[in-house]
Structures are given as C-alpha cells and as structure tokens.
Amino acid sequence: MLGIALIALVVSCAGYLFLGELRAPAATQGEPVEFTVDSGETTADIATRLSAARLIRQPALFTLLTRLRGLDGQLQSGRYILSPTMTMSEILIALQTGKLKELQVTIPEGLRLEEIADLVAQTGVVSAEEFLRAARDGDRFRDQYFLLSSMPPGATLEGYLFPDTYQIAQDASPDAIISRMLDRFSEQYSSIERSVRVPGVSVHQVVTMASIVQREAALIDEMPTISAVFWNRMRPEYASDFAGGQLGADPTVQYALGYSAAEGRWWRKTLTLSDLQIDSPYNTRRYAGLPPGPIAAPGLDALLAAAQPDESVPYLFFVASCAKDGSHQFAQTIEEFRRYEAEYLNCQ
Question: Which terminus of the chain has a smaller tally of CB atoms within 10 A, N or C?
Fold first, then answer.
C-alpha cells in the first residue's frame, strides 16, 4: 500500500507540474514576434524553434501536448504573430487559427529598385516611397548581412533584392519585406560563393557584373559567354583592342538616363548618340571598368555567370543574330564584329 501511495504521489506531482507548465507562459512580459512554420516541418522541429525563440520553455512538453490533442503533423505552415506571454495551449491554438493573411508579389529578374518598389506597392502593404526610402539606405542593413560588407558606404540595395515570389504579411514594414529579399539573396549567393573563378573580385563586383549580364542576355545559356566578354574587356592585355577597358554596355547607359517620360519606361528602347555621351559613372561607354554598383536585380543564373564566366572564350564583341530569338554572334576582332553587325542590319 505504501508503494502504491508513493507511485500515486509521484504521478500526482508529475501531473501537477505538467499542468502548471502548460498553463505558465515562457515569460510574464515580452514583445510579440513573428514566427514562421515551414512546409514539411515536424512538430518536434517546430517545438525546438519555439524554444529557441523563447516562446516556450519545454519543447518536449509542447510536442506531447500536440500529440495528445491529435494535432501531430497537422500544424499549418505560414507566418504567425506569437508572444512569450502566451501559454503552450494558446500557442498551439494560434498555430491552427492565427495565421497572418499574406499577399503575394512576384519580382522578375532584371528590375531596378524603382520597378521593384512599384510591384511591392501594388500589394497595398507599403507605398513605393516608403519601400524606396528604406531600400536606398543600404548602410542600415549592412551589419545584419555579411554579403553587404563590400558595398561602398552610402550605397543603395540595388541588385541585392533577390527576384522571386514572396508572401508578404498585411502588416509588414518596408524593413521586414527588404530583409526577406536579402535573406533570399544570401541563401542563393551562398551556393556560388566558394566557386567564384574571377580572381580578386568582391561580392559587390560580382553582383554588379551579374546585373549587367542580366540586362544584356536574353538566353540563359549565353550568360557565361556574355559575362566572359565583359570580363575580357577589362583585362589589361585587351585594353588596346576594346576602348581601354571600357565595358561599353548599353544597359548601364539606360540606367544612368533613368525614367523616360516619352517612352513611359525606365529602360529606354532606343539610345541616341547624345544619350551615349551622358556624363555619369554608370556610363560604361565613357568610363572604364565596372560602374559604381549594380543596375538591376540579377537572378541566380546571372550571378552564376558573373562568378563563373566561360574562361575558354577569347571574345570581345557580340551582336544580335538574325535568328531573332535573343541569341547573339560573338567575335574576337573588330572586323568579325562589323561583319556580323552588317549581317544583322541587312536582315532587319
């Protein structure tokens, strides 16, 4: 009888402690935080991250509670607002019913900051002006993202807001939206970071080159070759063959010119001779080397091409082909280029 009584006492105490832990929040005060449940996560994974975020104290008890309520494997993916003052039961209820309503925005490759801001503003979450104000202040995000460390002081986040489809909470701030895009950039760039073949270049230089390749190339399989052409043009041994190290990339001129009210677009379809003479460090027809920074948001293919150009090609020139499928013909000498150019003009 004494043994039975002791067992009953232990069970009773354990039950009391269990119920007490379920009813007690992780903290008596604290700010609400955003918590994301990813698709395919197990209850144990979610519990571990809830504990790491200091939203619960005992992940094992949270997992047990979820199973006792028949909800194991049924917690919905999404973004939630949770507080450390919530009990385990309240958190479990929130993870079933309190998902933030989200709006979707798709950012295509090759857009400049103003175009990205306009797309984000279409969700109605933030205005284009609010988004641009934050995105143009790259320094405020520098300490949070190691890959931004090579940006010049005062630089914007042009080129670093990775093009993708994003789900945006209705109450998201400009900083929160930008941080998600920078998170995505960091994730994607990390896949190529250790395989950069161009010696002595920084992340900022790779992103800058990638943005030019993104705007120049219509076909993904030509990106490594176009990247090689631009890197070749800056090599000292080719300085006498192509304008002393100038890239000669029209998209950089388009970027420098900015918005065309006459055409109603940021990227001008036609460039005049006077356009090509604009005095801007982004005009790579006047100034040698890379421009001060990216001109648009490159995708992963363009980043990979900029980091790993086709080292086997000696080309310095390219011109659109008569196939009119976005492909180009590549040339090593100015004579070849002029021949291909004449062919293209004749087939128009």
Answer: N
Query: pLDDT digits over 337-346, tens only?
Result: 999 999 998 8
* Rounded-to-integer distance, Cα 185 and Cα 164, Å: 10
Rounded mean pLDDT of 98-125? 92
Q: Does the structure show a pLDDT above 70 at 80?
A: yes
Tokens 């309503």 identify what position? 101
Query: pLDDT value at position 12?
Result: 46
pLDDT bracket for residue 98 (50, 70, 90): low
Question: Rounded to an integer, what distance in angstroms lies between the CA atom of residue 301 and that of residue 211?
Answer: 11
d(CA 242, CA 239): 6
Sketch out the chain's domains with CATH numbers. 25-97 (3.30.1490.480), 102-189 (no CATH), 204-315 (no CATH)
Distance between CA atoms of 296 and 158, rounded to whole angstroms?
6
Any residues with CB less than 8 A from the CB of 174 and at least 6 apart, and which? 126, 130, 131, 133, 134, 135
**Burial environment of residue 225 by CB neighbours within 10 A (0 to 12, 13 to 18, 19 or more):** buried
